Amino acid sequence: MRSPGVHLREITDDNRDAVRALRVRRDQKQFVASVSKSLKKAAKTPEANPWYRALYRGDEPVGFVMLSWRPPAGPFKGRHFLWRLLIDKRYQRRGIGREALTQIAALVRADGATELLTSYEPGDGEPWPFYQKFGFEPTGEIDDGEIVLRLTFPAR
């Protein structure tokens, strides 16, 4: 039996604690901030135009995603930037990150974007292979020590 698909849900008072409890593996902590830190960062930087959702599989929270959605200023002005993608350690290697990224890319593209940006900190266990398999390519830019990647959408 196939597991229910991944879907995005708003974070509310009803699910905030469950979503905050999601954790990556210990060896991944240097690459992905916790949900709590991400929500605090979103609250502190409204100019980044943060957009975030919980990732669910069925009724189970399995991850968290946060974008900077066409911020009005800054290095990524007017662009869509994947700021966080966190899949709980219990649900990794099941295609959830890929499915979530597919949905995010579709939303961003529907918003008129020609690309989706993200970045990662290089190091042992870095997420580059995941992003590379998905189709991201390095832009040549470095932002705050992180390598910036671009997923280009084909012309419609």
From TrEMBL:
CDD domains: NAT_SF
Annotated EC: 2.3.-.-
Enzyme class: transferase
One Gene Ontology term of the molecular function aspect: acyltransferase activity
PROSITE patterns: GNAT
Keyword set, alphabetical order: Acyltransferase, Transferase
Domain N-acetyltransferase: 6-154
Protein name: GNAT family N-acetyltransferase
Protein's organism: Streptomyces maoxianensis
High-level lineage: Bacteria, Bacillati, Actinomycetota, Actinomycetes, Kitasatosporales
